[in-house]
Amino acid sequence: MNLCDKMVGVEQVEKGDGNNEMITIRHLDFSYGKYAVLHDVSAQVGTGDFLVIIGPNGSGKSTLIKCIAGIFNVKSGTILIDGKPSGDYPVNQFAQTVAYIPQTEKGDLQSLVFDTVLAGRKPYIRWKPSGDDYGKVADVLHQLGIEHLSMRYVNELSGGQQQTVMIARALAQQTKILLLDEPTANLDLRHQLEIMNLLKILSFNGLTIIMSLHDINLAIRYASRLLMLKDGNVLAYEFADNVTCTHIENLYNIKVEMITNEGARYCIPLGVDT
């Protein structure tokens, strides 16, 4: 049975408890030149946690993910990955620990799905792919239920399928941590739910996931924890079940109501707070 066969409502999937620190962020500051973006950001993320970063546009969500991913060099503060400063990792070892999926990436338009996923094996390949590398790709495609797409070109696929291929490539990378920047952007509702269900199952199976997201209801429904950023500062860092109307109202300067339907919580915007 592959993961897609096991997709269930989030109500049936337990949330991670944050055991065993996988990522520790301490007093992180980051600036683009003289423009300060992140201010004294601290957080701890455990093995199997599903952390969603939310906040208004320009609050520093993508910047924080890129700092964790090693794309931006941290000059003030510390990021520990599995207890070790992220900057101390050799390039290949870091790539075997952390996988990153940017918001706009859709893969090489001229690349077959199999070859795109095989690119995730790059940190392990010395001269050319081995039988083990090809086998891992086949296993991941089967795991996600997309082996029938292996000989299709990425640009022939739907947005949801393309995003699944990017996740497959990250899984082929065999990391402990998966970072995603707005993975549901430009997807319809069905594909949003499919991607979020997939990520939830992966976190339940021990993969530590950090992602940025704009949809507050998807965040509350799927995340184990929420990190709320406003103007580059941590407004709150809460278990998803503990998020209140006050949190959301202070984050976005709007009036909201929180309702519960069949065990799931939803945030309903009521108007702009003037």
Key terms:
274 residues; alpha/beta; Rossmann fold; 2 domains; 6-stranded mixed β-sheet; 4-stranded antiparallel β-sheet; 8 helices; 12 strands; globular
Description of the molecule:
There is one protein chain. This protein has 274 residues and is of the alpha/beta class. The protein folds into two domains: 7-97 and 175-245, Rossmann fold; 109-172, no CATH class. Helix content is 28%, strand content 30%. It has helices at residues 61-68, 91-95, 113-118, 131-143, 159-172, 189-204, 216-222, 245-252; strands spanning 21-32, 35-46, 50-54, 76-81, 84-85, 98-101, 177-181, 208-212, 225-230, 233-239, 254-261, 264-272. The strands form three sheets. The chain has a six-stranded mixed beta sheet with strand order 6-7-8-3-9-10, with helices on both faces. A four-stranded antiparallel beta sheet has the order 2-1-4-5, with helices on one face. A two-stranded antiparallel ribbon has the order 11-12. β11 and β12 (264-272) form a beta hairpin. The protein is globular. It starts with 20 loop residues before the first strand and ends with a strand.
What is the count of DSSP helices, taking H or I runs of 4+ residues?
8
Topology order in helix (H) and strand (E) letters: EEEHEEHEHHHEHEHEEHEE
In total, how many beta strands? 12
**Stretches where pLDDT falls below 50 for ≥5 residues?**
6-18
As a whole number of angstroms, the C-alpha radius of gyration is 19 Å
Number of domains in the coordinates?
2
What is the first-to-last residue Cα distance? Answer: 52 Å
CATH fold label of the largest domain:
Rossmann fold
Quote the beta fraction.
25-35%
Lateral strand order in the biggest sheet: 6-7-8-3-9-10
CATH superfamily of the largest domain: P-loop containing nucleotide triphosphate hydrolases
> What top-tier CATH class of the largest domain fits best?
Alpha Beta
| Major β-sheet annotation | 6 strands, mixed
Q: What structural class results from the helix and strand content?
A: alpha/beta
CATH A-level architecture of the largest domain = 3-Layer(aba) Sandwich
Helical residues, percent = 25-40%
State the shape: globular
Quaternary arrangement of the chains shown? Answer: single chain
